[in-house]
What does this fold into?
Amino acid sequence: MLLTLMQSTVGAWQSFLQLFAEMAPWVYALFFLGIIFCVIEIVSQGFGVFGILGILMLATAIVLRMLAGGNAWMLLFMVLIAGVIIAVAFVIVGRSIKRGKLSKTEIFRVGTAVSTGVTEGTKDFSSLVGQIGTTVNALRPVGQARFEDGNVVDVIAKTGFVEAGATVKVVFVEGQKVVVEQIK
It folds into this structure.
């Protein structure tokens, strides 16, 4: 049993040495370019072209090495080497995105696509705060009111229902939301 284990270990070590000693230079290039492309795919955003090409290059390099006289140990070593390098790169990039230099780049900043402030297309109703007006129709609680300058504006009643023709005062404005309360 111990002798079999030792022979297996020696055979694995010999396979590891033969893996790289007898590998053709262009198979080396395919193997390491495949790893580099997979790492680029981890870092970059996009469709996945680098990842697909990287996986295809790795698979091609492994198949070509096996066809050139490889064995199961060589296959295992190639898959393990590629997997470990890609996993380490994934961990390093993941940590860098959270805490390192990559977290300070624009690519990885998370924001909102919706404007948080007043934009060019948003009408500014802040000048209405404190103005007195008359409801054009019943506010249930949304409706319209005409103010001193003659403008008719969509408003929301603070307390719910307000009858048409009632006098209202603008309590506050939030964006395009104009909140009024009835003056008695």
